[in-house]
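Note to self: user wants both folds in one dump. Writing first protein now.
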Amino acid sequence: MSLIEYEGRQIELPNEITSNDEKLLEVLLPYFPELSEATIERKTGQPIKIQYGLLKAWEDLKLQKQEDSFLCQYLCV
């Protein structure tokens, strides 16, 4: 079994479903149609995280800010 995190919810699903992003979304989409544009993040030893909408946009923005800050350290001297 694998643990899925989505909007503060935790859902446990069989590994046969969670091992493939397409299968996972195929199972979840009838219940959560907003996930059609979701991203799935996997890190060893942690629940599988599913993000979409504003939460995904916020995570993308934080990542871009980190990358810009890193680049500026080397290019803005």
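First done. Writing the second protein, which came from a different request thread.
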Amino acid sequence: MKRMKNVLCIVASVFCLMLPTVVQADVQGAITDSENNIMSELQEGVTISGKTFHFDASDITQAENYLKAHKVSDETAAEVADYVKEARQLIVDNAQNVDVQSVYSLKDLIKSLPRPVIDQLKDIVLKIGQLLNLVITFYRDGVSVVDPSGATVYATGDAIKQTGGDYTMSFVAIGALLTLSILAYFAAGRREYRV
């Protein structure tokens, strides 16, 4: 019987230690294949005169965080990916005459394009915003993206961190401690120790 208690205690301990990893994976969400197409399009660079330009890593991370937190249908994801392709092709078609020697980022490349092309890119971004039910506001030197609840999803230059009250891990830890305490009490038994 004592050996059975020890085995039960070990199994319960391992289970309690592994439970937080399972819960954490479920909380973070996952990107579907169709949403992954959007990410692939965003990660693909624009090559002008032998020089390739990419979105900043923080921009890609913010897009990935949004897709993890929000479900996007396959049709919408396909449309968004097509709009990103269209924007990339628009940049490639109109940036051939741009001197890229002093251009070091995709943002700088877009700023060096003619004004009508920038306006066309803004129209594409607004269409993407409508598809994803986001409010996009352009400023002189940046852009902000807000979801329907009013939370900022993206702002130029600022990394938006997903925040909020998620107490799942706290409850799992408390449950694990209580379970271990109860099991330790019964495993140790009521032994009297004499001094």
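Dump finished. Worth passing along: The radius of gyration is 26 Å.
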